[in-house]
């Protein structure tokens, strides 16, 4: 049994917030600043990384000739590869998935890295953040500007993935979506009008 708290201890614990507390984790703050994500997104990606690691360790602990192991490891590797969190379909690579990998798949980051919007941001990092839409927009070179501008373009509805306009900068870009990211028609018309390249015949 736990002893009853003293009066002073109870008074001190009243001021402690057990849900949200400031952290001094320099690595976490650096990733949040670099990829323009909030702490909420970081904690979600971190939890997903831990679940992926735990799942891959559980699958790896099964006997090698087990049919369930082969099937489940194949599904896990295929899923992570299709999202873009791992580069090769190997079970060992599943343990190397981290928050940066997810951040790099964000749409604004992919826009900059793909050349659609090329900014001064260098994105040579790791797996959850990489798959978010803003990060992916930077990586793919779709965007030439700072990450904050890429995030604004996504939030204002100037980017479309396939036929759908995306307004969430946390949108993760899978490998199948990479070829379908483009500007919306309204924004393209405004840019062409500003540069005096607008074709009146198309209207």
- Alpha carbon gap, first and last residue: 78 Å
Task: Please work out how many helical segments DSSP would assign.
Answer: 9
Radius of gyration: 22 Å
Name the beta content range: under 5%
Query: How would you characterize the largest beta sheet?
Result: 3 strands, antiparallel
Can you list the strand order of the major beta sheet? 2-1-3
Order of helices and strands, N to C?
Answer: HHHHHHHHEEEH
Query: How many independent structural domains?
Result: 1
What does it look like?
Belongs to the universal ribosomal protein uS4 family. InterPro entries: Ribosomal_uS4, Ribosomal_uS4_N, S4_RNA-bd. It is found in: Nucleus, Nucleolus. This is Small ribosomal subunit protein uS4 N-terminal domain-containing protein. Residues 4-104 form the Small ribosomal subunit protein uS4 N-terminal domain. Helix content is 46%, strand content 4%. It has one domain (25-196). α6 (107-113) packs across α8. A hairpin with a 2-residue loop joins β1 and β2. Residues 119-126 have low confidence and may be disordered. By secondary structure, it is mainly alpha-helical. The protein is flat, with a radius of gyration of 22 Å. The relative contact order is 0.11. The protein has helices at residues 7-14, 26-35, 39-61, 67-83, 99-103, 107-113, 135-139, 147-155, 185-194; strands at 159-161, 164-166, 181-183. It starts with 6 loop residues before the first helix and ends in a 9-residue tail after the last helix. It contains nine helices and three strands; from the N terminus they run ααααααααβββα. The longest helix has 23 residues, at 39-61. Strands 2-1-3 form a three-stranded antiparallel beta sheet.
């Amino acid at each position: 049994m736990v002893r009853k708290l003293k009066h002073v201890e109870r008074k001190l614990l009243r001021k402690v917030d057990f849900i949200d507390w400031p952290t001094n984790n320099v690595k976490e703050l650096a990733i949040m600043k670099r990829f323009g994500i909030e702490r909420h997104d970081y904690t979600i990606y971190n939890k997903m990384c831990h679940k992926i690691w735990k799942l891959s360790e559980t699958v790896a602990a099964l006997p090698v000739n087990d049919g369930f192991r082969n099937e489940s490891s194949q599904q896990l590797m295929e899923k992570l590869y299709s999202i873009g969190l791992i580069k090769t379909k190997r079970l060992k690579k599943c343990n190397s998935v981290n928050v940066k990998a997810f951040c790099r798949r964000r749409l604004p980051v992919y826009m900059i890295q793909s050349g659609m919007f090329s900014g001064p941001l260098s994105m040579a990092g790791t797996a959850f953040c990489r798959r978010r839409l803003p990060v992916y927009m930077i990586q793919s070179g779709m965007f030439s500007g700072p990450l904050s501008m890429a995030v604004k373009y996504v939030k204002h509805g100037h980017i479309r993935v396939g036929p759908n306009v995306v307004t969430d900068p946390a949108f993760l870009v899978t490998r199948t979506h990479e070829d379908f990211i483009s500007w919306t028609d309204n924004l393209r018309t405004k840019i062409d009008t500003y540069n005096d390249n607008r074709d009146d015949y198309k209207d």
